[in-house]
Specification:
Blueprint lengths: L1 E3 L4 E4 L2 E4 L6 H7 L8 H15 L3 E4 L12 H14 L5 E5 L16 E4 L1 E4 L2 E4 L11 E4 L5 E5 L5 E11 L5 E4 L32 E4 L4 E4 L13
Parallel strand pairs: 3-4, 4-5, 5-6, 8-9, 9-12
Antiparallel strand pairs: 1-2, 2-3, 7-8, 10-11, 11-12, 11-13, 13-14
């Protein structure tokens, strides 16, 4: 398995793996009074570069493809249709492991190469969104759902957040890898703050012992050692 740190993606065999796109969150942001373009163009550009980089033949999306939890509105449907028409030109297979925001997803996507599953096991790795327990046994879970970040503070006391990769182990000798969100518009759980971890799988792992990596691959240390002011020079 290869970690594409800055790209918030993984490569395993011929799979390109990403999580948490939240198509449609733009509408929520617009309703709050901000002018913002569709994420789809950014997604297409980034995925195009990843295809050139890794030559993946299959795409695996670890849930929360869309943002509206129930049925998507027309704007979301059109953007999703547009996005998958683009993706179908490059991938032989697209698999989505359903997330908690993916209600009625089967009614939205009508592309032959798309398969919607609860979870997918590839070798020793079990891929799923992470909002619910797995039905299959595994010693290595790869999930999204939490949109992991760390909260930092500069010398003036201004707080800001940066995406991170999270790796953990527990006493059962299970391992977990949490992908940062592919979307740049969503918030996230600050692992170095006392914020609730999301989902039953990640709660099986001791929070203080997670290993934290920045998206440039820099290892920051264990969760218990990363305070909000330790890395003010990283801004």
């Amino acid at each position: 398995m290869r970690v594409l740190w800055d790209d918030c993606a993984l490569i395993l065999k011929n799979y390109l793996i990403i999580a948490d796109l939240h198509i449609g969150i733009e509408l929520e942001i617009q309703e709050a009074g901000f002018s913002i373009k569709s994420q789809i163009y950014d997604f297409e550009n980034r995925i195009s570069k990843l295809i050139d980089k890794c030559r993946a033949e299959k795409l695996l999306i670890l849930g929360d493809l869309k943002h509206n939890i129930s049925a998507p509105v027309l704007w979301e449907k059109l953007r999703i249709y547009e996005f998958f028409e683009y993706l179908a030109e490059f991938f032989d297979k697209i698999i989505i492991t359903k997330g908690n925001h993916d209600g009625n997803l089967e009614k939205v996507i009508n592309v032959d190469v798309v398969e919607i599953l609860r979870e997918l096991k590839i070798g020793k790795f079990l891929f799923l969104h992470g909002h619910a327990n797995s039905r299959k046994k595994s010693k290595f879970y790869i999930i999204g759902h939490n949109h992991p970040v760390i909260e930092l503070k500069d010398k003036k006391g201004t707080k800001y957040r940066r995406k991170v990769w999270i790796f953990g182990r527990n006493e059962r000798k299970e391992e977990i890898l949490v992908l940062p969100a592919f979307s740049n518009l969503v918030g996230g759980v600050a692992f170095n703050r006392d914020e609730e971890l999301l989902g039953p799988i990640i709660r099986r792992f001791p929070r203080e012992s997670f290993d934290i990596f920045l998206t440039n691959g820099t290892y920051l240390g264990k969760t218990k050692d990363v305070s909000d002011s330790t890395f003010i020079s990283l801004r």
